[in-house]
Specification:
The structure holds two protein chains of two kinds.
Chain A: H1 7-23, H2 26-33, H3 41-49, H4 68-80, H5 87-101, H6 104-116, E1 121-124, E2 131-132, E3 139-144, E4 147-152, E5 157-161, E6 170-174, E7 180-182, H7 186-220, E8 224-225, E9 228-229, H8 234-263, H9 268-294, H10 305-318, H11 322-335
Parallel strand pairs in A: 1-3
Antiparallel strand pairs in A: 2-6, 3-4, 4-7, 5-6, 8-9
Helix pairs in contact in A: 1-3, 1-4, 4-7, 5-6, 5-7, 7-8, 7-9, 7-10, 8-9, 9-10, 9-11
Chain B: H1 7-23, H2 35-50, H3 69-81, H4 90-103, H5 106-117, E1 123-126, E2 142-146, E3 149-159, E4 167-173, E5 184-190, E6 196-200, E7 211-221, H6 232-245, H7 250-267, H8 272-300, H9 308-330, H10 349-359, H11 366-377
Parallel strand pairs in B: 1-4
Antiparallel strand pairs in B: 2-3, 3-7, 4-5, 6-7
Helix pairs in contact in B: 1-3, 3-7, 4-5, 4-6, 6-9, 7-8, 7-9, 8-9, 9-10, 9-11
The chains are: A alpha+beta, B alpha+beta.
Chain lengths: 337, 386
């Protein structure tokens, strides 16, 4: 039993932190809100230069042949920085689906470009009505019923939608029948692809939740009311303790799920659903407490807290919401009786 | 990251399973607070002890097997999985004994530890007092030192196992001028001494075992003080961390409670609301299990990240949530459910439900755990005292 990440995995996350300070700061995010694509070429270049685009791409397709565990801490940092980009889909869900379910022709066509960052993937496992970053991506992986398909986005029609999070760019995508290609291995790979999405998205949520609480812990130690800092009030402390306890326990599950998904363990899907659900609960509580304890200042447009609050609310729904995930997990538990 | 047990650990698990299968008590034991029940429990304890399974993680010179933290974890899991009887001397095994090992002299270890293992001494914890629940700095029981003797006067309350205990590890105030956590001493008191009166105290779920313990001029050798006189706060903090820090198979019992809930949910027709709630609870039970693993990992690697407050607070609340949902699913049947478990265990849902509610109070109430998390983990300032 080794419940620890490798030093290289920590180093990669630390490297991402350094890059994000320059290319994904709140100031950068605000600057992108009013641009046409909402996306930063500098950010994408940094991601590709760090090799993050190649991690889950197999070695024979010019990737690193790594796993979700190699990216788990980075995904947490992506949440921590509320990076304005659909990186879960680009770095994990899209490439994993093509690598696991694609024909060798499809893999050769897309994966080397994905690995070097010249091609971007996005994914929609829950319908084509709200697809992230379709406008800057080249290839889309989507689910129809129990099978996965792939489409060249240059042949698809995109309708932009307005997201509650101005950093999220969502599109309704219409795939013309002649552009749809089935991924032939999808029957066998679907469960693993879903597990990657659930587990990876849980990592992002944990990063978001922790950042909101870090922010708030700092704030309640400087904000004074009734003659003392509000962080000394038990009513404030208990809210932060509750949110923190949820984050701590949820993070254990999220890391375990990443390891199980990476190892293709029998209970990987179960573990990833549990991870997504507890991460959702932790984020939900952190989101609630962060705004409540910031009070009026947290409600102002100029304050950066909104970047995390809105990303959290958007991501609570994006990859299966609390109810959907619990329904699926509850049914899975009953099936084991 | 590798979440699998080594072949040696798996072999150890099988060895235990074999031994438990062969030696487990047949049928249900009576309550240890009844005369026949006490002998039945003693019989099981004696069997465990003879085979070296009484406290396998204790050092061999103290009568254990020197098991490492992961082996101890596996032992606790299997003990819970086999639904074996609650340990008669758990306060001594889990808290009192290890505190003596950490802070006691060699002579004290020789004097106190063997009696815990063979149950010739049954230990209880004397921390709670009528005016001091989670606020241990408010203890008022006094210990007046006269030469080699400490004279103890006062009262302890809500003492688990108090009815059958022979030995109490207690906090007493040895400096009458002192306030708060200064001037407190950790001492081991023989409850068979003159001046000790143990009165059984009923518990709300109907199970006996609780007691209030009165001390009137009880003479205790000063040699029974663990650590220094006046240093009891530091010694007790070891015991408290042990009490709230380790999961001791609780993750396994929580999983069993979840499986019981799943069965009852299926029997009741698996309506969508119950299935959703089952899934939600399954997620948190799983997270708790991972927390137990992570905490053991910290201990096994000799690091010191302290997850004890998180484990105590959320663990008890998740378990209560599982029980609450089980009552909901049983509907009117919950009111009249049997005293015993579906596998004829001594304890059924009714006892486990209320015991779980109690767990949110003992070992430092969950409100205290929230303060500890806020102050120690998040670095928030202490609440000013009036």
């Amino acid at each position: 039993m080794k419940i620890a990440f490798e030093p290289e995995q920590h180093d990669l996350a630390a490297g991402f932190d350094r890059a994000a300070a320059a290319v994904a700061s709140p100031q950068v995010a605000r600057g992108l809100w009013d641009t046409e694509t909402g996306r930063s070429a500098d950010l994408w270049r940094a991601v590709a230069e760090m090799g993050l685009t190649a991690i889950v791409v197999p070695g024979q397709n010019e990737g690193f042949g790594g796993t979700l565990v190699d990216l788990a801490l980075v995904l947490e940092r992506i949440g921590h920085h509320a990076v304005p980009d659909a990186l879960l889909e680009a770095l994990v869900t899209g490439p994993v689906a093509i690598a696991r379910a694609g024909s060798s022709k499809q893999q050769e066509a897309w994966l080397p470009g994905i690995a070097d960052g010249s091609i971007r993937a996005t994914a929609a496992l829950r319908g084509l009505t709200s697809v992230p970053d379709a406008h800057v991506s080249d290839v889309l992986v989507y689910r129809e019923g129990e099978s996965l398909h792939l489409a060249d986005l240059s042949r698809c029609a995109l309708t932009p939608l307005v997201s509650m999070d101005p950093s999220r760019r969502q599109f309704a995508v219409e795939v013309p029948p002649e552009a749809a290609e089935p991924l032939p291995g999808s029957a066998a790979a679907l469960e693993a692809v879903l597990a990657h999405e659930a587990s990876g998205s849980a990592s992002v949520l944990i990063g978001l939740a922790q950042r909101m609480i870090d922010y708030t812990v700092d704030y309640v130690q400087v904000r004074e009311q009734f003659g003392r800092v509000i962080g000394s009030f038990q009513a404030v402390k208990h809210q932060l303790a509750d949110a923190t306890a949820r984050i701590v326990l949820a993070r254990f599950q999220v890391h375990a799920a990443a390891a199980k998904v990476a190892a293709g363990a029998e209970d990987a899907r179960h573990a990833s659903l549990a991870a997504r659900r507890v991460a959702l609960d932790a984020e939900f509580e952190a989101n609630r407490a962060a705004l409540q304890l910031h009070g009026g200042i947290g409600f102002t447009w100029e304050h950066d807290l909104q970047i995390w609050l809105k990303r959290g609310k958007a991501l609570e729904q994006a990859h299966g919401n609390r109810g959907e995930v619990a329904d699926e997990l509850g049914a899975a538990v009953l099936a084991t009786l | 990251m590798d979440l699998t047990f080594t072949p040696e650990q798996q072999a150890f698990r099988r060895e235990l399973q074999d031994w438990f299968t062969e030696n487990r008590p047949q049928g249900r034991l009576d309550s240890p607070y009844s005369e026949p029940g006490f002998s039945q429990h003693m019989e099981w304890e004696t069997k465990l002890h003879a085979a070296g399974w009484a406290a396998p993680s204790w050092p061999s010179e103290a009568g254990g097997r020197d098991l490492d933290p992961w082996a101890e974890f596996i032992y606790d899991e299997e003990y819970a999985r086999f639904r074996l009887p609650e340990r008669l001397n758990k306060m001594g095994l889990v808290h009192g004994g290890p505190t003596v090992m950490a802070h006691g002299t060699e002579q004290q270890k020789r004097a106190f530890l063997p009696g815990i293992l063979d149950c010739s001494d049954i230990w209880c914890q004397g921390f709670s007092e009528p005016g001091a629940g989670s606020d241990l700095a408010a203890v008022r029981t006094t210990g007046r030192i006269e030469g080699d003797t400490m004279v103890v006067d006062g009262q302890k309350i809500w003492t688990s196992q108090g009815v059958i205990a022979t030995t109490m590890f207690a906090l007493v105030r040895t400096d009458p001028q002192s306030r708060g956590h200064r001037g407190i001493t950790f001492v081991i008191i023989d409850l068979r001494s003159p001046g000790v009166e143990v009165r059984p105290l009923g518990q709300l779920h109907g199970n006996p075992g609780f007691a209030e313990v009165f001390f009137t001029g009880v003479e205790v050798p000063v040699a029974n003080v663990i650590g220094e006189v006046g240093d009891g706060w530091r010694v007790a903090s070891t015991s408290l961390a042990l009490e709230r820090g380790t999961s001791r198979g609780s993750q396994t019992r929580m999983e069993q409670a979840l499986v019981d809930l799943a069965r009852d949910t299926a029997d009741a027709g698996s309506d969508p609301r119950s299935v959703r709630r089952l899934g939600e609870l399954a997620a948190w039970v799983s997270a708790y299990e991972q927390a137990a693993y992570a905490s053991t990992h910290e201990i096994a690697t000799g690091r010191s990240k302290d997850y004890s407050s998180f484990i105590k607070m959320l663990g008890t609340e998740i378990l209560t949530a599982v029980h609450e949902e089980n009552l909901e699913v049983l509907q009117a049947g919950a009111e009249v459910m049997a005293d015993h478990g579906p596998n004829n265990e001594m304890f059924g849902m009714r006892r486990n439900y209320w015991h779980g509610r109690g767990a949110e109070i003992y070992a430092g109430s969950n409100e205290i755990q929230r303060n500890l998390i806020a102050e120690r983990q998040l670095g928030l300032p202490k609440e000013p005292r009036g």
